[in-house]
Each structure stands twice: as C-alpha cells, then as structure tokens.
Amino acid sequence: MPKCVALHDRRVEGGVPNRPNLTIINTDEHTCIQKAFMEINAVARSGKIHTLFVICHGYTGLEVEALNRSDDDAGSWGLELGKDEVDLSNVSNWKAIADAAENIVVYSCSAADTQPGFEGTLADGLRLMGSLALYTGATVFAADKPQEYETFKDLKNGCIEFGEWKGTLWQFPPDASPPEAVLEAPIEFDDFMNGICVTPAHEQEIASQCR
User: Fold this and answer.
1) Alpha carbon distance 210, 79 (integer Å)
2) Choice between 46 and 72, residue whose per-residue pLDDT is larger
3) Is 44 left (phi over 0), alpha (psi -120 to 50) or beta?
4) Contact at 8 Å (CB) between 45 and 3?
C-alpha cells in the first residue's frame, strides 16, 4: 500500500482505524496547525507521502445576506481544521509542508465552491483550493458541493465512510494552471480503509507501489 496520512479534525464525528502505511493525525479546536505540519514532515522524511487525506467540516453560506444571496452553500469560506482553520488569509502557511505529499484529497463540504458573484471574495473556493495546491506543491482534489458521510458504530470510535462525491470533483495542479473536473482521486479514503489501494482510473500510475 502507498504511504498515506489522514489529517482528521475530530469535529467530524467518528474515527479513522489504523491501517498499514497510514499515519493518523488528529486535530480539534485547540490544535495549532503547525503541530500537524511537523508531524506530516516527520512522515515525509522517510519518503514522500502519496496522499494526504484532509477530513474536516467546511464553512459555507456565511455572510450571504451582505451579498444579496440566499444560498445555504454560497461558496467556500474555508475549512474547519484545527484552531487556525484554513482560508484565503492563511492558506500560505501550508508552504510549511511544501513537497511533502504528492496528492491532497479534501473531504469537506463545498471546499472548491465558487458561486457566480463570489469570484475574488473570501468565498472563492476554487481560488482557495488552487492556492493550497500552489503552496504545498501537491495536486489537490476537492469538490464543489456539500458532502455526506456515515459513521459505522460497529468499530471502535466509529469508522468514517464518505461514499460517492457530491457535485463536481476538481483536480488542482500545483503549477497554478486551471483546475480540471475528474471522477475520482488517485486513492479514495473509503478504498484505502477497505484495503483497495488504487481506483481503476489510476491503476497504472501507482501499481508498482501496491505490490
């Protein structure tokens, strides 16, 4: 299995079970994101991380009245990750893990959502995810609609499962070129939890790492 990291904010209920080649880093409202960065870089010292799963809630639908909008999911206002959170004012801090991971897959509501009229505002999710790719040097995957997840109680702490992506899944290259719509990430969190290390569309890309 390729080396992966699950960065899990505990405000997303449920747990992330241990798996081979998986490092679990938990955050909450009291955790400084720099601590998580140190742990990510420590994992990367023995070789680049294939995929960093970011599991957290997203901020959507804030301040829409000021912009004469009534949408509940009007753009992405950032990620609820640690006490620092992630938005356009601080995404540059992620350069602390530049080149630590090949891919970052963001499981968060509307992380890549930019509604008409919100371009260039703090609710510009496409810009936020593009900036995350630029500063980390990783290819970032994030969707533009609210996501759903289940927690299975038959396992200790409950195992998080996301199911199918809602909305469009976007792939953001690290070279600041425009994002592209894709069907899946190179490795999906659910597949990794179930011992499936690749999705069919990316089998050739990382088959040698899964032997």
Assistant:
1) 31
2) 46
3) alpha
4) no
Of 39, 36, 150, residue with least CA distance to 93: 36
- pLDDT per position as a tens digit, 85-107: 999 999 999 999 999 999 999 99
Tokens (6 digits) for 120: 């260039």
Phi and psi at residue 177, in whole multiples of 5°? -75, 160
DSSP SS3 for 19:
coil
Report yes or no: 85 and 57 within 8 Å, Cβ to Cβ: no
The total number of residues written for the chain in this structure: 211
In whole angstroms, give the CA distance from residue 21 to residue 4.
6
Domain boundaries, the chain: 4-210
Check the CA dihedral 38-208-104-11 and report its sign.
negative
Which residue type, as a one-letter code, is found at position 48?
A: K
Among 5-9, 47-51, 200-204, the minimum mean pLDDT is found in 200-204
